[in-house]
Amino acid sequence: MRARTAVVLFLLLPACAPRLPPGVAAPPASAVASSGGPNRSASYVARVEGGVVVFDLGWWGAEGALDDALVELGGTTRDVIAVFLTHSHRDHVGAWRSVAHAPFHMAAAEVDLFFREAAQGGWVPRWVEALNATDVPAPDEVAVRSFSSDTAFAFGPDTVRAFTVPGHTAGSAAYLFRRTLFAGDAIAWSPVTGIRSARAGYSDDAEAARRSLASLRERLKPYPVDWMCSAHLKCAEATDETWEKLLDEGG
Question: What is the tally of structural domains in the chain?
């Protein structure tokens, strides 16, 4: 069992020191909950009119990490009024029980994957799921509000803009909020190349993920974007150079 766990951890690894945008971890307006193993998973939380919104739900230890982040905002899980999932791999849904009262927003193509009514596409998440099934809700335990195309959600003066970016998973999504793009695992990082697009093996279709990013770059042009962050605490300024690295077919 220990050997199996070690293999799983190795496959879900490569990490680096986090570099976060100044506005992402700025209590009491926003905070980050870090959970899981060496390749830390992130939940990004922010106070908005009416409560708190959460982007992704982390991995093991996510419930305690989310509680701590919400304390930095002067709140608790009861203040969460919306959850936005970039995708439903196990390392991004860990704290679902803590916020099951809030609506869960995700792309329509991700819903069956979230409830495990459809199989994961990438061979690594599919294999890990077969070894140890993820704790996910039944369809009647959370209220899912899905979207099938780019859309927006208003919270007083704040807007969460949602974009479909299929490839890493069938229903991967990215969210633009306060000039930061939360892209889930549509963007990744390696110690060799730095920032890059979604990784093969972990993704349904890495080339489709790259094409989605190319399309996303065009769809984002009407909006100011200063930073982009993965769901693993890897962030970069949204410069032309960053986009070129993301879209580099050799990356």
Answer: 1
- The token pair at 183 is 């892209």
31-72, pLDDT tens digit by residue? 999 999 878 999 999 999 999 999 999 999 999 999 999 999
CA dihedral over 234, 62, 171, 124, signed as positive or negative: positive
What is the span of the domain harbouring residue 110? 23-247
Task: Decide the pairing of beta strands 51-55 and 80-84.
Answer: parallel
Assign 217 to helix, strand or coil: helix
AA letter at 182: F
Contact present, 92 and 184 (Cβ < 8 Å): yes
CATH of residue 121's domain is 3.60.15.10
Instruction: DSSP for 114-182, please give it.
Output: HTTSS--SSHHHHHHHHHS------TTTS-EEEESS-EEEEETTEEEEEEE-TTSSTT-EEEEETTEEE
Q: pTM of the full predicted structure?
A: 0.92
pLDDT < 50 regions, the chain: 1-17
Is residue 208 within 8 Å of 214, Cβ to Cβ? no
- Evaluate whether residue 39 is within a structural domain: yes
**Considering the domain boundaries, does residue 10 fall inside one?**
no
Angle at 128 between CA 65 and CA 94, to 5 degrees: 20
Sign of CA dihedral 201, 207, 208, 210: positive
Residue type, 13: L
